[in-house]
Write a structure and sequence with these properties.
This protein is mainly α. The protein contains 28 helices and 2 strands. Strand 1 and strand 2 form a beta hairpin.
Length: about 500
């Protein structure tokens, strides 16, 4: 064997024994450069086989063209050693929640991911499409080159070959459709329409989910046809995508069905009574109303009404009653199905991302949450979709009204604990002011403040890290903070890391 021959020559020395032509040919086949220096060739050959023995497997034969060398990145695009060290810590699990911020700052300052971490990150992207969506614009020329070298990464490439649609795997075809829906949505739609009849159920479901990207009124005709699909899963998914088009005819049909159930009396003081739908027509089922769904405690009939209300743009009710948002909500709340209206309209508000209605709903929830009828109200769908500007505005309002922090189940606590939005500096200052007031008013009740520590844990990743010196100075000067020493230490540890990371990526206070 070649290994024994190399060992024999190495022991005898190249002065007493030389490499035969057959051995040189075999070494060349392994990618080892030939030349006049036989000692070098022997050492490279020995290294190759040593690594092969160590791995326990023989390297695959490379049967493709030798790729061009990786392009060099510009020095100004490189990450600093401090930033690379921070990314290592994030990937190793020390500060996993800082990844989104790292990527944001990376993009903002025109930096690219460090080359030594690309293979690890690309492998993770194979299992996590959401991670790929975050990283794809941070690869740089070197990363884009690297994606091309591994067949298992090819489906990640930003501009897949259109021919993949006919011959590629499911993952490759999904990548192509995603790419087209981002940049050329009509071309993606054309591909899907051409092959739709031959697609499997699993492929139809996967492709319909991708249709949400680049969605517009031009997709309505295709989605309407999908409402007649033979499979229930496809029909319901198509309806859920279709209702996101504000001008869709399906929304008008839902609106007309809903107002037909209304009994409105009075003019200045409007009173609303609602009749629940007794039966579902085939057309209603076609439009996505599930006859067996019971997502509301009022029963199946109430849920049918809720399903219709949950997709109608809330602004339609302002026009229907000729009233403001607040007045419309008051009308609904006084009706015979007030809580149903409130829950369903919060879902519609999230679906259509109506910021003004989000604020109106949150203000009512903030006031009424302590009442018995509102204890188990589920607004998760809306609260999870609140944009950063609405979150900060409502959180600041809530903290300004209360001198101390509120109980765990309060809407304000839920927003602060669950939403991953950057905190404005005003919000951060108010939070610590109110936390300090609570500690003063409740000395020795550390055990009763667990939900405050949950908020503090979230805040560590959302507060501007450049506030650290100010906060640290306040913690050091006032003995009241010693009551929460352990939690404050955890908080400042995260903030110190984020500050180091931000500076390492070239960020300044106004960038975070």
């Amino acid at each position: 064997m070649l290994w024994q021959e190399l060992t024999k020559i190495a022991l005898m020395g190249t002065e007493r024994s030389q490499l035969s032509e057959s051995i040189k040919t075999a070494l060349q086949a392994k990618g080892i450069r030939l030349g006049n220096d036989e000692a070098r060739m022997i050492m490279e050959g020995a290294s190759y086989y040593a690594m092969m023995h160590k791995s326990g497997m023989q390297a695959k034969v490379w049967d493709r063209p030798i790729p061009r060398p990786a392009p060099k990145e510009l020095p100004e695009n490189a990450c600093s050693p401090e930033a690379i060290q921070c990314l290592h810590q994030i990937i190793d699990g020390a500060f996993p929640n800082a990844l989104n911020e790292f990527i944001h700052l990376l993009q903002k300052h025109g930096r690219h991911l460090p080359a030594e971490l690309l293979p690890n990150l690309l492998d993770q992207c194979r299992q996590s499409p959401s991670l790929w969506e975050k990283l794809r614009d941070c690869l740089g020329a070197r990363g884009a080159w690297l994606v091309q070298q591994n067949p298992e990464w090819l489906f990640l490439q930003q501009n897949p070959n259109p021919e993949i649609w006919e011959t590629g795997t499911k993952d490759q075809r999904m990548a192509l459709l995603k790419s087209l829906r981002l940049s050329q949505p009509e071309e993606g739609l054309a591909l899907l329409e051409a092959s739709w009849e031959t697609e499997s159920l699993q492929s139809r479901i996967a492709f319909l989910k991708i249709m949400e990207t680049g969605l517009s009124a031009k997709d309505e005709s295709f989605l309407e046809k999908c409402l007649d699909d033979r499979r229930k899963e496809v029909r319901q998914l198509a309806a859920s995508v279709l209702v996101q088009i504000a001008s869709a005819a399906l929304l008008e049909r839902m609106y007309q069905r809903t107002v037909a159930l209304f009994v409105v009396t009075g003019k200045k003081k409007i009173k609303l009574e609602v009749n629940l739908p007794e039966d579902l027509s085939p057309e209603m089922i076609r439009d996505g109303i599930d006859p067996r769904n019971q997502w509301y405690q009022g029963g199946v009939k109430a849920s049918r009404l809720g399903q219709m209300l949950a997709v109608i743009p809330p602004v339609r009710w302002e026009n229907y009653f000729d009233k403001t948002r607040e007045e419309v909500l008051a009308i609904f709340l006084k009706s015979n199905w007030g809580k149903l209206f409130f829950t369903a309209i919060s879902m519609a508000t999230a679906l259509h991302q109506d910021k003004a209605w989000m604020e109106a709903i949150l203000r009512i929830w903030f006031v009424k949450h302590h009442e018995a009828d509102w204890q188990n109200l589920d607004l998760q769908i809306m609260t999870s979709s609140i944009p950063a500007e609405v979150f900060n505005k409502m959180a600041i309002e809530g903290l300004e009204k209360d001198a101390t922090l509120v109980e765990n189940s309060a809407p304000l606590s839920i927003l602060l604990k669950e939403l991953d939005h950057p905190w404005e500096d005003r919000l951060s200052i108010l939070f610590f002011r109110n936390l300090k007031a609570w500690l003063k008013n409740n000395p020795g009740q550390y055990w009763n403040a667990w939900h405050f520590w949950n908020i503090l844990e979230k805040a560590a990743y959302q507060i501007n890290p450049f506030l650290l010196p100010t906060l640290q100075n306040a913690f050091d000067k006032d003995v009241i903070w010693y009551q929460a020493g352990e939690e404050i230490d955890k908080f400042t540890r995260v903030l110190k890391f984020r500050l180091k990371m931000a500076k390492g990526l070239g960020a300044k206070m106004e960038d975070v």
